[in-house]
Amino acid sequence: MFLQERNHSGSNVSQNVPTIEQKVEAVIFASEESASPQYIRQVLDGELSVAEIDACVERLNEIYTSTGRCFRIARVSEGYRFLTLPALEPTLKKTLAPKIQRKLSQSALEVLAVIAYQQPVTRGDIQQVRGVSPDYAVNRLLERGLIDVRGRADSPGKPLLYGTTKEFLDFFNLQSIKDLPKLREIRELVQDKEIREYLASSEGTADHEEQ
User: Fold this and answer.
1) Which CATH class name applies to 89-210?
2) Are residues 119 and 162 in contact, defined by beta-carbon separation less than 8 angstroms?
């Protein structure tokens, strides 16, 4: 959807010619995932170099800072994405939790965590950690593009090996797999009352189906 300017008589009037910063900003804003510099260049027909795109993003962030905006453009995975300021996390936590819950159930998150921290892993490896078959969750994660096949293990039967994808980094706003929280940090998060309540509330019919 696009806004249309109208004059006082109600008829459409032509938009002002957008600046190059506005073009870069619009591409990042409209992208459903992090927009790589190469993607932005493609959309803009090679109008800018990667260095010029970086400079545009820096100027945009300076504008957001000076005008007190609640968001910035951050590097996520291999591209750019709009993110709200960390200070707003407590305000947005309750609105974001239901959205995350609809996207991935608790069982799928548990399977994804095993893959993320121990990749590449087989389904047998995952089942050994969780104690139940991960087949349903693995298939859902493959459909979502959060994991992919990394080859086959050298064990009997040559089972498939799984690892996380660029979409996984986008989903969790990570620049690289090295940015995963340490296990100690996860244990600290689990002590948070609101997070415990959220995790408990996400256990439902979908979890039973996946197990």
Assistant:
1) mainly alpha
2) yes
Asked if 104 and 112 count as a contact pair (C-beta separation under 8 A), the reply is yes
> Tokens representing 108?
């799928």
* Eight-class DSSP state of 130: H
- 20-84 and 89-210 share one CATH topology? yes
Two tokens, residue 162: 């799984």
- pTM here is 0.48
- pLDDT for 6 beyond 80: no
When the candidates are 1.10.10.10, 2.70.98.10, 3.30.1360.10, 3.30.1360.70, the CATH number that belongs to 20-84 is: 1.10.10.10
Domain residue spans in the chain? 20-84, 89-210
- Residue 189 C-alpha from the chain's centroid: 19
User: Which tens digits make up the pLDDT trace of 138-195?
Assistant: 988 988 888 999 999 888 888 999 999 988 888 777 888 888 877 555 555 445 444 4
Tokens coding 45: 């027909």
The mean pLDDT value for 5-33 works out to 75
Sheet strands (E) in 53-186:
71-76, 79-84, 147-152, 160-164
